[in-house]
Specification:
Layout (H helix, E strand, L loop, with lengths): L10 E6 L5 E5 L2 E6 L2 E6 L5 E6 L2 E6 L4 H22 L2 E8 L6 E5 L2 E5 L8 E4 L5 E5 L2 E6 L2 H14 L13 E6 L7
Length: 187
């Protein structure tokens, strides 16, 4: 007795390169270059094949089920984010708020040093990821990078470094907080 299973047709999605962008896919890594800016992202799934054909990134799966569709859509968004980052840096604005003690911020190598936070004698540190630029102007911090994940993680590291535990948040409102993200429409 033979059982025949009718397969749905394959899924294939393509996204074209923007002007001036070159890409290559090797060893499960997509590398996109525009001018002196280079971004790379590991995109690997055994059920999805990725190819560079005629200035387009082609994502193809032989099975057309919803899980494969989810993976392909995720990869598409990653590639779109890389292309957007090559054209314009992702920028986060943060603000340092202090009510009780004036904190001071400075950059030492790949760390942000937060001194005198809530009157603490030892400084707090937050990691700055590679290829991320941080500017401090008074109490305003600007985090910018062509890599969306690196910029977002660095901003999150700054927020997490000033978490307050064991105190009433209504009274102790000190900390570093994200005030503007790259996708925000408000000015």
């Amino acid at each position: 007795m033979h059982i025949f299973i009718k397969m749905k047709k394959a899924i294939e999605e393509k996204i074209a390169f923007p002007d001036g962008v070159t890409c290559e896919y090797k060893e499960n890594k997509l590398i996109c270059i525009k001018g002196s800016t280079e971004l790379s992202k590991v995109l690997h799934n055994p059920n999805v094949s990725i190819k560079i054909v005629d200035n387009t990134v082609s994502l193809k799966s032989s099975r057309a089920n919803k899980n494969e569709r989810k993976i392909i859509n995720t990869f598409l968004k990653h590639v779109e984010g890389m292309f957007k980052g090559l054209n314009e840096a992702y920028t986060y604005k943060l603000e340092a708020c202090n009510v009780h003690f004036p904190m001071s911020l400075k950059i030492e190598g790949d760390k942000l040093v937060i001194s005198n936070f809530l009157g603490e004698k030892t400084p707090r540190y937050a990691e700055i990821l590679q290829n991320v630029t941080v500017q401090i102007k008074g109490q305003i911090l600007t985090v910018a990078s062509y890599n969306k994940e690196a910029a977002g993680q660095t901003a999150a590291n700054f927020e997490r470094a000033t978490i307050i535990k064991g105190r009433d948040r209504r009274i102790f409102q000190d900390g570093i907080f994200i005030t503007k993200k790259p996708g925000d429409k408000k000015q």
